[in-house]
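We modelled the chain as a single entity of 605 amino acids. Its sequence is:
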Amino acid sequence: MESEQRLKRKRIYRPYSRAQFLSRRSLILCLSFFVFLMFLSSERFPIRTVSFHPVVSVPSLSILSKNSLQDSFHAKLRFPLSVEDRVLFPDHLLLLVSDKIDEAEKLDCVYHKVLNHKDVVCQRVLSVDEFDGFRSVVRCPLPPWNYSAAAGLMWRGHGVDYSLSLRSNRTVHSWDRLVYEAAFDGKTAVVFAKGLNLRPHKESDPNRFMCQFGLKNSDEEDEGFVVMTEAIVAAQEVVRCSLPSSIRSKPDLAQGIQVTVVLASRNDVEHVRMPSAVRFRNSRSYDHGRNRMRHKENIAMPSVAKLYNSKSYQTKRNDGKFELCACTMLWNQAPALREWIMYHTWLGVERWFIYDNNSDDGIQDVIEELDFQDYNVSRHTWPWIKTQEAGFSHCALRARNECKWVGFFDVDEFYYFPRHHRRGLPGQNLLRSLVANYSSSRMIAEIRTACHSFGPSGLSSPPLQGVTVGYTCRLQSPERHKSIVRPDLLNETLLNVVHHFQLKKGFRYLNVPESSIIINHYKYQVWETFRAKFFRRVATYVVDWQENQNQGSKDRAPGLGTEAIEPPNWRKQFCEVWDTGLRDFVLANLADPATGSLPWEKSLL
């Protein structure tokens, strides 16, 4: 009887004992986890291992708050940045990074000594920009004397090992011999390369070139599947090649494929099994011996260019194209943007493409303000110096699916309609109405307008109401011209000389009479503004001001030397005709009736 009661008590109390045991174990686990978090929050015990370098610090007060814990985690967690490529320019070192960088002010460039990698120096980055939607560019100072240009990046004050940013690639490319950009265009790839030494302003023989698409296998370090295609056309810094069939059929899978230009001595087949880049060892060609011998005769250029199937470039607007867009390339001209964009928007420009060539004057803030005010402006980071023609070719590709017409002109150039002004006719949307008259033309694909060059007009400081109102004295005869083009009717080479493009066969340009439309080019402004041009000029085939070449060229200021020294009586030079036409046109149409202020002045308040 007692044994039966004992068994009954065991059956009754056993579940209670097990629950009690589980409860104690859960409590112990929770306390252990709490202690572990306290351990992490202690500054005496930072996590430092070989495989995991970031330091995680969790404040003890944030343990009970999920949001606070996440905020602290993201604020403190710093992974080493992966430097994909480096390009050495005359005045800075450019790093291409495969990460988005939010806090550039906390980033340092790290240089190691050439003969002693343990001897390192750090300098703050010059600037950081998003690039091609998938990478970032970091501009670093030139390396100190006797230090390598194979620089790394390090988060300041976080103790992250910068050496990880050096392990994948220590190559440093030279800016003047490099494949620097690539873009999809239908069934072709348009590749931009510096150092091809092709004739300016003329087409070249495409048989000299091929394109190499790097389809590197993820499980192979030294070799991958490389696709070679022949060039279709070539001109200046642009080579157009047919896309490999594997990419044409599935372009979405081609994201991030590296492409380069091969200087070919013989024709090549499309698919060849060979190592990536220009290495030929360990090749596994289908016909190993024959293909290996053939490819040794080809020279692949260094490349940082990658193909990305950007939908903004490829997809047409659902609500129809803009009638008129504008594209320009600039360096440190942020103060001029407001007047230029606001005035030409009033004339009918609907979309703006700003190619920024390494500005450091707060241009992004200006563009964001204009875009916030519905001026439809986008900034495209274009870090490649002396490539204005190629940049315009790239912009023509980019704008083709958005715009019927694209104007290519500078931020110191302003369209003016003297006949309409003299007759007192309305001026708003005049430029858009002009190009719309030819949007259905079967012959006209470009509208050219002559330029009048204005001088300092007696001023010694920048005019407060802008260049259109302040500069009123110019040279007698017009200099050069600028163009508005139909991007879908350009020659497939995309050949241009900045001022105009080469068109498809069967189409021609139209020269509009000076009495109807003219461009006021405020070329020779007050010395404070003009001397910035001595730093560098963006066009490929235009000599920089410091170089003692082409002294008589119209691209140079007459009588000006090679040094940024103000000539005597500069404020009175380049003044042959007093011309207040555009000033009066602007004040009559855009000035506030009550205050006399102009729209771009209000934006500065």
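As a brief sanity check on the tokenised model: The radius of gyration is 31 Å. The first strand starts at residue 83 and ends at 88.
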